[in-house]
Amino acid sequence: MGLTEKTCIPCQGGIPPLSGQEAQDLLAQTPGWALIDNASKIQRRFTFNNFVDAMQFATNVGELAEQENHHPDITFGWGYCLVLFYTHKIKGLHENDFIMAAKANSLTNQ
């Protein structure tokens, strides 16, 4: 099953974050995303032709996050939207972060 077909499961904490290798393996399924902060977070910068498209994308990612109950940090401005995922409760990456990254990718044709 691909990441976009999965749904996020609530993370209650008390589990270890993904290892660097596990994160790298899942990253292969999320084109355009990069591991940052010693493989404890993933982020992607999406580019747009104007402010309105960037704002709409940020809104769409926010609505998706509400549906999945897994929320990113989102920064946007004229022509860009930066999306950052990590699981706060485990201070690192969980499969949920990659599920959300894949689903965010599906919101755009970039």
CATH architecture designation of the domain at 40-110: 2-Layer Sandwich
CATH class of the domain at 40-110: Alpha Beta
**Roughly what fraction of the amino acids lie in strands?**
15-25%
Main pleated sheet: 4 strands, antiparallel
Give the number of helices.
3
Strands side by side in the biggest sheet: 1-2-4-3
H-E string: HEEHEEH
Spans of 5+ residues with little confidence (pLDDT < 50)? none
Classify the secondary structure makeup into a structural class.
alpha+beta
What is the strand tally?
A: 4
Structure notes:
By secondary structure, the chain is an alpha+beta fold. Helices cover 34% and strands 19% of the residues. It has a domain of 71 residues: Transcriptional coactivator/pterin dehydratase (Gyrase A, domain 2, 2-Layer Sandwich), CATH 3.30.1360.20. A 4-stranded antiparallel β-sheet has the order 1-2-4-3. Strand 3 and strand 4 form a beta hairpin. The mean pLDDT is 94.
